[in-house]
Amino acid sequence: MNLRQIEVFHAIMITGSLSAAGRLLHVTQPAISRVLASIELRLGYALFERFKGRLHPTKEARKLFQEVESIQAGVNRLNDMAAGLAGHGGGLVSVVSSPSFGEWLIPAATAKFCARNPGVRIRYRPLGMDALLPQLLLGYADIAISIFKPEHPNLITTELAQGEIVCVLPAGHRLARENVIQPAMLAGEMLVGYSRDTPLGETLCAHLDPQGHNLLAPAIEVRSSQTACSFVRQGVGVALVDSYGLTDALMHGLVVRRIEPAIPLFVYVSHSRIEPPPSIAKAFLTQFSQIVKKELPAMTQAILKRA
C-alpha cells in the first residue's frame, strides 16, 4: 500500500463510510471508491462488507488498521516537524500526562509558556499509564508527566515534586469534622476507588491493605481521581484521590482531609533516552516545574484549610 492508499483506508476506517471519508479528504466519493478498489485488488481480499448502507471492516481490515494508525501518526508528526522547520507557527510541544495534571497544573504552565513563546503550538493529551508510555516510546510525545514512575530502559525519568493521597468527603459527612482521616475510620463507608491493576489502586493497596485482604475494596471502581470526586459530589460514597488535581471548582461541595499515616505520591517527568526532547519542549518543562514547585503546595494547603 502506498501513502495515498493508507490515507484513504485510514479515513474510511475512522469515518465509517465512503462519502464521509471523501469529505474528510476533500475528494469525491467515486475517487474514494476507486482507491479502495485498487487496495483490495492489490491485497487480494476484501477489506469491508456492506450492511444496511454502511461499511463494516473485515477481520483483516481491523488488523491492518492497527499498523496504519502508527503510520498515519508518523505522517502527522512529519508534517508538524516540516511546518516547524519552515517557521510556520514557531514549533510544537507534544505533552502527555496523568489526567490529574490536566485540571490546572498543565493549563497554568501552558498559559505562562505561551505568553512568553507566542506562536508555539501545544498538543496535550491526558492519558492513563497504559496509554501514556506508548505515546512516549513511539515518539508521539516529547515529554510525559505522570504520578507513577515509568519503568523502561529507553526512558529517562526524573522525580520533580511530591504530593499526597487525600480523602474526599461530601459536605456534611460524619468524618468532615475530623482534622485527619485514618484508614480505620473508613470501615463501613462506600468507597469510590480503583481496581488493583491500576497504578493508583496498587499504591493504595500497598499502603492500606498490604496483606491483600480487601479491607478497603472499592464499592465503585473508576479510572481517575476526577471521576471519583464527581461520584462523591453526588453523595455516592467517599474517595481517596491524588492531590494534584485539587481545585476550588473540582472541590465545590466537597470536604478534603489528609490521610494519616500519609501516603506520598510523586511527580515524574519522562522523555526518550534515544531521542531527547527539543529545546522548546525543555522550555515548557522548565515552566511546568516552576508552577509545580511554587503553586502546587499553596493550592493544596488552601484546599485542605477549607471547612
TrEMBL record:
Signal peptide: none annotated. PROSITE patterns: HTH_LYSR. One of its GO terms (molecular function) is DNA-binding transcription factor activity. Pfam families: HTH_1, LysR_substrate. Residues 1-58 form the HTH lysR-type domain. Keywords: DNA-binding, Transcription, Transcription regulation. GO terms for biological process: lysine biosynthetic process via diaminopimelate; positive regulation of gene expression. Belongs to the LysR transcriptional regulatory family. PANTHER family: TRANSCRIPTIONAL ACTIVATOR PROTEIN LYSR (PTHR30427). This is LysR family regulatory helix-turn-helix protein 99.
